[in-house]
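Forum: Protein Structure Q&A
Topic: Joint prediction for protein chains with partners

I've read a bunch of threads here and the consensus seems to be that you should model interacting components together rather than docking separate models afterwards. I'd like to see that in practice. Below is the full input, 588 residues plus whatever partners are listed. Could one of the regulars post the assembled result?
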Amino acid sequence: MSAITSSRADTIPSAPAAPPLVRGITRFARREFRDALASKWFLLYTLAFTVLAVGVSVLSLSGVGSHGFAGFGRTAAGLLNLIMLVVPLMALTAGAGSIAGERERGTLLYLLAQPVSRTQVLLGKYLGLAAALVCSLCVGFGVSAGVLAWRTGGVGIGAYAMLVGFTAMLALAMLSLGMLISVISRRTTVATGLALFAWLALVFVSDLGLMASSVLLKLRVQEIFGLAAANPLQSFKMAVIVNMNASLDVLGPVGAYASNTLGAGLPWVLASSLVAWTLVPLALAVVLFARRGSV
Amino acid sequence: MIHAAGVTKRFGRVSAVSDVSFGLDPGASMALWGSNGAGKTTLIRCLLGVMRCKGRASIGGVDVRRRGRHARALVGYVPQELAFHDDARLGSAMTFFAKLRGISRDRAAESLGLVGLSGHERKRVRDLSGGMKQRLALAVALLSDPPLIILDEPTSNLDAAGRGEVVETLRRLREGGKTLLFASHRPDEVISLAGRVLVMERGRIVRNTTPAELWPTEKPVQVVRLYLEMASEADAADALRDAGHAVHLNGHGLCVAVPRDRKAEPIGVLARQNIEVRDIEVLEDVQIPGGDR
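Posted by a regular:
Agreed with the consensus. Here's the joint model:
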């Protein structure tokens, strides 16, 4: 070992300043992104999503001779249901394991003992995971688009890009919710359990609950639409359908009400719901993480 | 360098740290001494600003609660156990922490050299020995050449050789003018590294003294041999190690290093574990081989 030199003892020496907010976030985001790309969950999710997306595409096209853009419409409808099941599960569990996992491994304390703030750690991890998730989705959508183009001779690029865009928004919203769960959970198992519960609630319970409450409480159409738009999955579904059909008439009276009332503003309202589901849980996670009394 | 005033941390009704006040001058070295659960680790976490607590604490005049990350820029922290991702390679881990602190890659390599880890950059963390992991943590702590190094029982998980390496590195850091604050329950470490000792019990500072005053003789540590039932020796050794004692099992009883004025302490530790001590012998001029724990 070589000699250790040091700053003088008689004064308090200066040390390099703590990294600025953005640089700290960027460092954590890059590391999180690299770690995610190298992780088994990322490979598994990417593979599963790609296989399912391609499978849905092939099955959709093998029906009654749909071709070209009509073929894409059938595929998008098939993908819609797949996305609503798989993407929230991917994002919720990835988010739930982030902070809770670091806490359980003991690495969170070490990170927080560096000259960084809790906000930098959390936002950096969020951005890194978000980038990894979007990459994973892009692989699945890319391969699926390749299959579509090969089988039908063309893909409605604009509509397909919108589908990818709304899916990315849904993933970011669910990742935020997962991070919030992770912040409030001491153990990874608890966080994962809560994430699965949230997934079940969003995918199944809220849908059935909305149907039941609309019948039992005799809700008006605007109330049903409001409740549906408050669910990020329903917002996503309606946004994709509007994107494909330019109208929600296929969803019955509630859809017709939304189309007639909101008109061209409907996609923006639905996108706003997804943005709110991204920002509110993330902001809550930042606040709760910053106020936490212990590691 | 460090100023703490009335630092208090409660977990529910339990006070882990209670009204702790002390100061540490630049270039000085201080040990936090106490048994497990005395509050040493909690106090360190409060001083680092990673745990919210009552009272005031500052590092280099920077309030750790209000400007935590700026205060931590003055600190290199070495935890009890290295907490890196097992899959990470030494080189990439060092680069990450270097970038986080705005330090060049060259400095990261230099820092690895300071602790004798040059040439190991491609190794994964999981492939390192305990001593190497601890030296890696020290290398990260030294990255930005911070004026203050805080260590939480840095040698507790090391064998004698690893412990010797770390203590030697810390001794040279101290000679180089670094301010050291470290938790330990090994008298030999405290004597060789600390200028002052804060003795903690149940979250409170009960003495702020020097090692010489705490262990006034030239040989502050004595070895006592405990005679137990053979079947309970392994459990007894574990319990005593957990309580911070250096223990050696040599087939003729259990040899335990204890401060001269606390020779009966191991008996109390074992009594709490319902392990009966048949006899006790105080050994003169005997050291525990390698001090293995």
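Residues 20-291 of chain A form one domain.
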